[in-house]
Amino acid sequence: MLLIKRGNEKAFEAIYDRYAKRLHYFFYKMLNKDDDVADDFLQDIFIKLMDKAHLFHPEGKFKTWIYTLATNMVKNEYRRIGNLKTDRLTGYNDIQIFDNEWITSGIDIAIFKEELNKVIDTLDENDKVVFALRYNEELSVKEIAEIMNLPDGTVKSKLFYTLKKIAFKLNGLDPR
Amino acid sequence: MENNEKIYELISSTPFEELSESEKKMVLSTMSENDYREVYNLELRFKNSNTSSVKDAWVVNPKIKLELKKKFRLYQTQKDKAYLHLPQFIYYKIPVYQFALVLLFLFIINFYFQKQHVNIQIPNSPKVVYNTIVDTIYIEKEKLVGLKYSYLKKSKPQYKVDSITPNIFLNETIPQITYLDSNYKLGSSLKEDSILKTFITKVQ
After folding, report:
1. Could you give phi then psi for residue B179, rounded to 5 degrees?
2. Chain B: nearest CA to A46, how far in angstroms?
3. What residues pair up with B173 in beta bridges, in sequence order?
4. Counting CB atoms within 10 angstroms of each CB, which of A16, A162, B96, B192 has the fewest?
5. Can you give the pLDDT at residue A108?
6. Predicted pLDDT of residue A58
7. Which domains does chain A have, with CATH numbers?
């Protein structure tokens, strides 16, 4: 990041190569699986990185810093959509995070997946983001706490609450 | 709330069978054994879902990278131009607390010197200060209600009315008194002073 601050293009390229896929995937999953929207958000986050490079503290972790930017962008988008409330954009609330490898085929799996997304849809925006960062982005509780500016304990409580909710709602549907 | 944190730590690490007695007691105060197993299994599956291989295979539009590189170059040239026009010390950054300390120090110094100067300040010359005072002033005016007389000369006594109420006698000189005899007497009372006696008789 220090090199980027000094205008080193190679450093910028290296950061892009390391994080572009992860961030694009994150935006894609969090914003209704829309490729164009994910493209726009990816561009925006790297433009923000250029503009706000001076705000990054070298003693901090770059990964949590960039995810903080990404999470704030997603939350702002949720708020914007929430304020607009147009039919065209209602799909944004349908956050579909979990189509991972362990859910591969079969009608039970399809029902489970659908139900899972319904439960996640009922979560508030912070719980959704915390859950996605933990199980989709595979970040540690400490990293999530830093990104969301919450105490570790609160993140753990949120995760426990969400897991419990999902487990109770999907009781009997889990295709093990 | 604290229980939830601890239970999450247990759920994300330990199956129910491996919990200690005290941990089991704590878990069972919040949820049943079956619920714990359900949540534990779900957490394990989410955790093992391993999205990294999906992310590695993820394809991002290569145009984005090219576009961003172009913007980065443009951004740097703009930044360099702006940077060159200003003196270097402007870019020197200090933490906010240092700035606050300097301000506090200046304030204390200023306060101290102001206090010192209060006792030694002596005005060089008296100052004229104009104060507008609004007050009620009672003015007493003399009002004459009787006669005033004076002797002008002993040899030629003449009476003059200075002021009299009503005004018709004002400044009116009383005609020369014809003395009854030249050997008039002066005295302090009406009995003794024959001239006064004559005057009053005339006026009446």
Report:
1. -75, 140
2. 7
3. B160
4. B96
5. 66
6. 74
7. 1-94 (1.10.1740.10), 99-176 (1.10.10.10)
